[in-house]
Fold each of these.
Amino acid sequence: MPRKYIFLFLILILHGTVNASENIIINSIDYLSSHPDSRYRISGLKRYKARNFAEAFEDFHKAARYADKLSQASIAMMLWDGIGVRQNRTEAYAWMDLAAERGYRQFVVLQKYYWQNLNEKERNTALQVSKEVFENYGDTVAKPRLESELKKVMPATGTRLKGAAAGAGNSVRIHLKGPTTDITEYSVDSAEYYSPHYWDPKEYWSWVDTQYQKDLRPDVTIGPPVQMDQKK
């Protein structure tokens, strides 16, 4: 896969694996206010698409603090190719190594590719940088940050979950506002919006794993480098 297409492939990993109602929920202002991992990732992707690479890089860093693997991989890609930031292949490997922490196949492929293209000196440096990155952004420290945000809203969502369950026979619709750039309101079933896999930390991480493990694309093969028109 030419490297200029890899980023589009990464976007599809999450944003191409959800159904219509899930897409409405995870892009709503209500949901994003309690999910900084998704909020900053989506902002980063939008800014990247608009070629505001430096701002996108900052957003991906913010999302990475909350254990967002797609954002961590995006940081790696931008460092590897020098997009919006000074090129640094050893640091790029460290971030892709972090993105591959949970064994998600999409990122393991790229991690191996990066490693194969480092010389011995770069590898030694990359391993040291990787240790530092894991200390600050690894799941051990990053997941609790997001879980702390989810726990702030769990009492309220728990009450609403019970209400949704009690009225399961009579569907209750709730209205959600779209992204900040979209004033449209959407209607979704309350039982779906308050589903534990969005709000309970343990179930949320399991759901995230499921999204990454969906195999929408064939094996990734890395082709020769392709020059990109870059804006720094």
Amino acid sequence: MGEVIDLSPIPIYRHKVQSVSDVDNAEERLFSMSTTQRTGALFDECAMLRHELAYDLFRRVWPSCDDTMPYMDEIRSMLQSSIDWMTIDGQLPHETWFNALPSRFRVYRGCNADAVNGFSWTIDRDVALSFAGGHRGMHLSHPVLCSAMVRKNSVLMTVGDRNEREILVEFDDLREIRLVHYPRCLL
């Protein structure tokens, strides 16, 4: 009798990845995908990494992800679990521009009307307006510009890439929320 060969699909991952070079490889795989496919794949890749490496990959790739609303629970889990081990003297590491902000400040979000409760906000109104107008070729059917006040200690993560001065914050932590609907022709 011949040898039995298992022809079932081979799992991509057999164990938790442990090195920075594996983060680099994961980042390369993710950047070979479209920006809308990337978000779900990002969480698959993060699941295979030790927590500090997963957070590093998340910080590197997050700014290039689109269609993030279906992944709200995964985003929340990643950010909240990172707070436990990322704090340094009770503080999260942030971008230099963030450290200069007052304890309470205004943030903006440009998005479709059904995505107001997302995590990504910016301190730059013009950046938010550019997202309301659609970005990376995306079409928004009901563009809005949101603004809100947030306390500095509510911010979960900052991203300085592409000069967007992005912050990630839970929608429930925002106050004085204002919403302006924009006809597509004005953006």
